[in-house]
Amino acid sequence: MAGADEPTRYLDGYAELLDQVSATGRRLTRDELEERRALGERAAEQGHGLRALVHAHLAATRHAWPSTTRHTDSVLAAVEQAVDAFSEGYERAQRLAVRREEAARREFIDDLLHGRSDLGRLAERSERFGLRLSHAHAVAVAAGPEAYTETDTVGRGVGAALHARFGDRSILLTTKDGRLICIAPGDQPEVLAYFAKRAHVATDGGQVALGRPHPGAGGVVRSYEEALGALELAERLQLDEPVLNSADLLVYPVLTRDREAMADLVRSALGPLQEARGGAAPLLETLAVYFDAGCVAAVAARRLSLSVRALTYRLERIRQLTGSDPADPVHRYTLQTAVIGARLLDWPAKPL
Fold it and tell me: What are the pLDDT digits (tens) for 120-161?
C-alpha cells in the first residue's frame, strides 16, 4: 500500500522549475511539460489518488514560493501549467487502463459465450469478473428494437437495477451483437426473472429468452445458445410472449431434427392448400390462429378480425382441400404439427 509521503516522489524538479520561473519570468518548455505528464502517468499507474497528488503540488508550491520575486504572475502561471500537465498525464493513464480493462473484459466475454478458450484458463479468468465457473450458470438474452451497449442508457439502467436489488451475487451483465445478456448462478432463478422484467420494460417491450442452467464454463455457452435459439424460434413462429423459457420450447428443435421428414409432412398435409384462391398463406394463418386459440372458433375469429361464419367457411375449405378436419381430434395433431413445421421451415414463402 502506498505510504503517506509517497506522492512527493512525483514532484521531482518541481521546486527548481518555480525558482527558474521566479528569476526569469519564462514559461515552461514543451519538454518540461511532457516530463510533468510522464510523472502524472506513473503516479496513476501506481494507484495514487489525484486529489492527494494535487494537494502535494500545492504544498510544495507554498514551501518553495520565493520570498522576493518580480514575476509573481509568471510563477502562478507555471504552477497552473505544471499541475495541468501532471493531471493530463494522470488522466491519460487512467483512460488507457480503462480501455485495457474493457478490452480484457470483452475478450473474456467473447471467449466465454463462444467457448473459444481453454476451459481451465477461462475458469481462472472468470473470477476476475465475478463468476465461479465451477458452479452451474444460466444465461438470459434480451432483444429489442435497437442495438444496445453496456454504456448506453438501457444497459446502465438495467445494470443499476440488478445491483440495487441483488448486490454482488456473481452476476455478469454485458452485451453481445446488440443484445443485453445476463449471466447468473443457476440456483438463483430470481435474478434472471428480475432481469427479464427490467429488460422487457427498458427495451420498450423487447423479448427476453432464458436458457437452462448448466455446469461449468461449457455450460454458459450451452445456456447462451439455448436462449438465442429461443429468440430465433419466437421470430419464426411469431411468438409474442415477453419472456421465453428455452425449456418450454424443446419440442421445436426435436421436430426439425429430421428436416426432410418434416418437409414431407408439410407437403403432404398442407400442400393442397396451395390450390386455394390466394394461395396457401391465408388458410395456413387461419389454422395457426385457430390452434393457438385452443380451437375455440369465436376466439380465433376475433383474432383474425373475421365473423365466426367466415372462419367456419375457411375451416371447411381446409377440410375439403386437405381431407383433414381441423376440428377432429384425430386429424388435429397431424395438422397442428404440420403448421408448426411450416412456420419453422418458412413455408410457403420458401419452397420445400
Answer: 667 667 766 667 777 889 999 999 999 988 788 998 899 899
Alpha helical stretches, state H, the chain: 14-24, 30-45, 50-64, 72-114, 119-126, 153-166, 189-202, 216-237, 251-255, 259-270, 281-292, 297-303, 308-322, 329-344
- Give me the amino acid identity at 257: R
Q: For the segment 180-218, what is each residue's pLDDT rounded down to a tens digit? A: 999 999 999 999 999 999 999 999 989 999 999 998 878
The answer to whether the beta carbons of residues 334 and 269 sit under 8 Å apart is yes
Strand pairing category for 136-143 and 179-185: antiparallel
Taken in order 245, 248, 251, 252, the sign of the CA dihedral is negative
d(CA 199, CA 185): 18
Q: How far is CA 326 from CA 161, 283, 295, 330, in A?
A: 47, 12, 8, 9
Q: Among 212, 217, 219, 138, which Cα is nearest to 181's? A: 138
Is the overall model pTM greater than 0.70, yes or no? Answer: no
Selection from 155, 192, 150, 152 nearest residue 170 by Cα:
192
In the three-class reduction of DSSP (H, G, I as helix; E, B as strand; rest coil), residue 172 is classed as strand
Q: Is the pLDDT of residue 252 over 60?
A: yes
What percentage of the chain carries pLDDT values higher than 90?
A: 44
Q: Cell match 518553495: residue? A: 64
CB 19 within 8 A of CB 28: no
d(CA 314, CA 297): 11
Q: Helix, strand, or coil here: 175?
A: strand
Residue 284: strand, helix, or coil = helix
Q: Which H or E run contains 138? A: strand 136-143
Distance CA 113, CA 182 (A): 11
Cα(first)–Cα(last) distance of the chain, in Å?
Answer: 69
Closest alpha carbon to 122 in 113, 214, 177: 113
